[in-house]
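Sample pair:
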Amino acid sequence: MDRRLFVWGAIGVLGFAGDAWARALSEKDAQTGLRDILTKGTQAAVERVSRPGGYWDDTRIQIPLPKTLAKTQKLLKPLGQSGLLDDLHLRMNRAAESAAPAAKGLFIDAIKGMTIKDAVGIINGGDTSGTQYLQRTATPGLKTAFTPPMQNAMQQTGAVDYLDRVVKRNNMQGFLKTDAKTYLGDYAVGLALQGLFYYVGTEETAIRRDPAKRTTQILKAIFG
């Protein structure tokens, strides 16, 4: 069977009959084009956040201290006693920058695992539907990759011990649902990934909307 007819039939079964792109593209073409989009977007995002200052110097994705610690930092700063929390704040962001390159391989694995059904949903979805696909499929591996450097950064600053002391001194045992090291690590990892996906989505949207970024004939056929 002609692969274009196969795709057109598959699209009809999935409820997307009438989409013009399917008539011109084979299953392989569509998947190749989408993989190209997602590969370009993820590589650009990883390179952006992993450079020095990628998180720290970017107010859109800079990782803040947890609210309770940020409040303490604000109170201590005029007294010149916020050094530990200032260091923690910086190190969380530096750790995110250091961990980011590990995302490349995990993104590639997720992109390779994309099925024709995934491809149809992405093409017919919104500006960041490919990014949402990656969030669903790559996030577990990304959390595993980001957690050790984040936790190490928290430990090296003395912030884990500091948080333990703050909790005990202020009778805030209910503030932590787990130990201080895990709490700080999980918090920082969550926001680091949020920042990374922010720029994956930005890159995907640009490719969808800007004809100049459609650098292959397949991309032009899909989104032209």
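The first helix runs from residue 3 to 13.
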